[in-house]
UniProtKB/TrEMBL annotation:
InterPro entries per the UniProt record, alphabetical: ABC/ECF_trnsptr_transmembrane (IPR003339), ECF_transporter_component (IPR051611)
Domain of life: Bacteria
Xref: CDD domains: EcfT (cd16914)
Protein name stated in the entry: ABC transporter
Lineage, broadest ranks: Bacteria, Bacillati, Actinomycetota, Actinomycetes, Micrococcales
Transmembrane segments: 20-49, 61-79, 99-123, 135-153, 227-253
Keywords from the named record: Cell membrane, Membrane, Transmembrane, Transmembrane helix
Entry's localization field: Membrane
Membrane topology designation: Multi-pass membrane protein
Main subcellular localisation: membrane
Pfam families to which the protein is assigned, alphabetical: CbiQ
The UniProt record lists the keyword Nucleotide-binding: no
Length: 256
């Protein structure tokens, strides 16, 4: 099996989710920098070799890089003190231990966050719901309810805007910004609950939650390419652990 056989951009959403989950599970049990760096390098190679352009890769990676940098900076300034202390000011203490831990945390956030961001940004929620119900056998009632709720998120912004228009037209939104916001938020909550109740009743009447068998408009299956992506995710996680163990840098999180 080669990386060229796996097209990440067309993989089943369930395969993407399992691949990212395997990497995250492998990395979450250690805080060393070797396993994180190994996983990060392998992820970058696989993602760039699987149909994702460099420009798209860099654009999507930016939020994760910023989050990782902020996390690493926090650990650097306020992390556990050990070894030689280099800077100390009020609550800020920069030592050898905090530097090593900050570097490991920075790399680990990147290694865990990049696969999730790059694999999930363009997933169609309906395709994901089909995969969760048909491949992972999750309850259809739960999956379809979550999908319907996700589809309604976009309506909240419109409801908020229309509520503001209505309240201003009635002359009740001219003063008291905090009180106005609280009242409008409560009204939005009432609208959301009512809409959700009506939607649940309609879906139940149409048999969306039929158990134990129901039909699906689109069949969701795992292809050889999807299985290859899952295997690659597991291989990246195991390789990162093996490299850290062989180099003597493996540091189990429970031992710290």
């Amino acid at each position: 099996m080669t990386v060229a056989l796996v097209d990440v951009t067309r993989a089943n959403p369930v395969a993407r989710m399992l691949a990212a989950l395997l990497i995250a599970v492998a990395l979450v049990f250690s805080v060393d920098w070797v396993s994180a760096l190994t996983a990060l390098v392998l992820e970058t190679v696989v993602l760039l070799a699987s149909g994702i352009s460099l420009r798209r890769f860099l654009r999507r990676s930016l939020p994760v890089v910023i989050a990782a940098a902020l996390t690493g900076l926090t650990i650097l300034l306020y992390g556990q003190v050990s070894g030689e202390v280099h800077v100390q000011f009020l609550l800020i203490t920069v030592s050898d231990g905090s530097i090593a831990l900050a570097a490991a945390t920075f790399l680990r956030v990147l290694a865990i966050g990049l696969p999730s961001i790059l694999l999930f940004l363009d997933i169609d929620p309906t395709d994901l719901a089909d995969g969760l119900a048909q491949i992972l056998r999750l309850p259809a009632r739960f999956v379809l309810g979550a999908l319907a709720g996700f589809r309604l998120i976009g309506l909240l912004q419109e409801d908020w805007q229309y509520l503001g228009y209505a309240r201003r037209a009635r002359g009740v939104a001219d003063t008291g910004r905090v009180r106005r916001g609280a009242g409008q938020a409560f009204a939005l909550l009432v609208f959301a609950v009512r809409r959700g109740s009506k939607l649940a009743t309609a879906m139940e009447a149409r048999g969306f939650g039929a158990f134990p068998t129901r039909t699906w408009a689109r069949e969701s299956t795992l292809t050889a390419s999807d299985v290859g992506l899952i295997v690659i995710g597991g291989a990246i996680g195991l390789t990162s652990i093996a490299v850290a163990v062989m180099t003597g840098n493996w540091s189990f999180i429970g031992a710290r």
